[in-house]
Amino acid sequence: MFESRIILPFVGVVVGACVALYGGWYSNRSVLRREDRKQIVDRLEELFMLCQDLYDGHEAEIKKLGGFKGDDVATWLNARKHPGSSMARIRLIVKAYVPHMKAVLDELSVPHKRLKDTFLEIEASANDPIALKKLADLHANSLKEALSELGIATVSLKNGACDEISRRLEIDQIR
């Protein structure tokens, strides 16, 4: 048969190689997990800022509309900047990174849609400055109410993002 002095060094080399491979794999896995958690935390921080941008954008639109005197429709239309891109990015981040917060996202979507639809209705009457001003005045209170609801929903989503960031950072500290 084989001599043990030939087999034992071979077995030692094989076991050593297996241990080294496992150590490398485990180390790489840990680094990838840490990077994944960092990316998620970065997205949650972005979510926080996007919520603020969404609220600020709608608030700015309401102020612009409130300051419209009914004379220069083209200036008002050109100054319009719907914060829809912020909402699209918020949806993406929640669905991809924190799907358990979808209920809060749904709460946010309702006043956002009300604001968007109201502005589209007002904008549709832009050919007639008098009609535009009347619609703006007519919807002033409902716009403020929807903005208030949006503010409450954005605070809920921002608080959820902060809680999730804290939770993920605690996990990092434990490990």
Task: Give an overview in words.
The protein has helices at 4-66, 73-79, 84-97, 102-124, 129-174. The chain has a single domain, classed as Four Helix Bundle (Hemerythrin (Met), subunit A) (Up-down Bundle), CATH 1.20.120. The chain is built from 5 helices and no strands. It is rod-shaped and about 105 Å long. The protein is mostly helical and 175 residues long.
Brief write-up:
By secondary structure, this protein is mainly alpha-helical. It has a single domain (39-174), classed as Four Helix Bundle (Hemerythrin (Met), subunit A) (Up-down Bundle).
What oligomerization state is this entry in? single chain
Query: Judging from the principal axes of the Cα atoms, what is the shape?
Result: rod-shaped
Helical element count? 5
Q: Please indicate the percent range of residues in DSSP E strands (runs of 2 or more).
A: under 5%
Low-confidence stretches: none
| CATH topology label | Four Helix Bundle (Hemerythrin (Met), subunit A)
Secondary-structure content class: mainly alpha
| Annotation, overall tally of beta strands | 0
CATH class: Mainly Alpha
Kindly state the mean pLDDT as a whole number?
A: 82
Cα distance, first to last residue? 49 Å
